[in-house]
Amino acid sequence: MTVPNRVTAVLMTALLAGPVAAQGTAEDGVVNFAADFAAAPNQFIRTDGEMDGLNVDMCGAVAEKMGDEIEWTNLAFPGLVPGLQANRFDAICTAIFINPERLQIMNMISYVQWGEGLMVPEGNPAGISCEAEIGTPESYEACFDGLAGMTVSVAAGGTTNTHLVEQSDRMEEAGLDPIDIRAFDSNSETIQAVTAGQADAGYLNDPQAAYFISSSGAPFEMAFTGFAANQLAIATLKDNTELADRILAALEELRADGSYDEIVETWGVAAVPEFVLNPSE
């Protein structure tokens, strides 16, 4: 398979190692992963031009265990699933949640988990808060109600956008003003809209917002976190079960040798209790 938009500047080669046999999926000894590299800390390009992030480490280690070289395709999130369906790359290794619609077209291997939250200016001037409990969606409704009539930025095409629209629709049905949702192509644009004052708040995955606040020192904080806590997946096309099985086996090896725990601890995400191919399918 050819990869026309392959990002040669971010080519990373993994060492040949590990007992998971390399069968070759696109071309022998090479696996092509795609991700949105404007989504720190999941994956991003440092100021020195090098790749960094959770998924660079995780899928780099997976490729190493499979005995493959790894090539990355950098693509904005809304284009990742269509790109996979068009066979532009072999797998997606970005921050993508598992849901029934995606399971219909992709194999999804759970590997870490996190929730969603709201980034607001320091001091939370709008007073957005609630007695939210992770795993209890209705406990977050008061948090979203505090966004009535406010402008909130979000990345287009993702689960965060879907959940924000659902909450806005619920509020409108309850007689509240809807949320003025501004959807952008990437999480970095979502954050930029808040820092530039174009939005009152940004709705993001928790680790992404927390990483921005801690690494930039910008005067922002999280009004709430942990909504819709869910597992993230590495995904292949539905008929590419061979690669999905190899990724799953590689993750098991990373858990066994301690590498997996080191990576999730480094990037501040939660481990999954077990790696599952197509959970809840």
Ordered list of secondary-structure elements with their pairings:
Blueprint: E1 30-35, E2 38-39, E3 43-45, E4 51-52, H1 54-66, E5 69-74, H2 80-85, E6 91-92, H3 100-103, E7 106-121, H4 141-145, E8 151-155, H5 159-173, E9 180-184, H6 187-195, E10 201-205, H7 206-216, E11 220-237, H8 241-256, H9 259-267, E12 270-271
Parallel strand pairs: 1-5, 1-6, 8-9, 8-10
Antiparallel strand pairs: 2-3, 3-4, 6-11, 7-10, 7-11, 7-12
Helix pairs in contact: 1-8, 1-9
Whole-number tally of structural domains: 2
In the CATH hierarchy, the third-tier topology of the largest domain is known as: D-Maltodextrin-Binding Protein, domain 2
Question: Major sheet, described briefly?
Answer: 9 strands, mixed
In the predicted model, the low-confidence regions spanning at least 5 consecutive residues are 1-24
DSSP summary, beta strand count = 12
- The SS-based structural class is alpha/beta
Name given to the CATH architecture of the largest domain: 3-Layer(aba) Sandwich
**Inertia-based shape:** globular
**Strand-residue fraction?**
25-35%
Helix run count = 9
The whole-number mean of residue pLDDT values reads 87
Order of helices and strands: EEEEHEHEHEHEHEHEHEHHE
Task: Write the CATH homologous superfamily of the largest domain.
Answer: Periplasmic binding protein-like II
Q: Give the radius of gyration.
A: 19 Å
Under the CATH scheme, which class of the largest domain?
Answer: Alpha Beta
| Relative helix content | 25-40%
What separation lies between the terminal Cα atoms? 29 Å
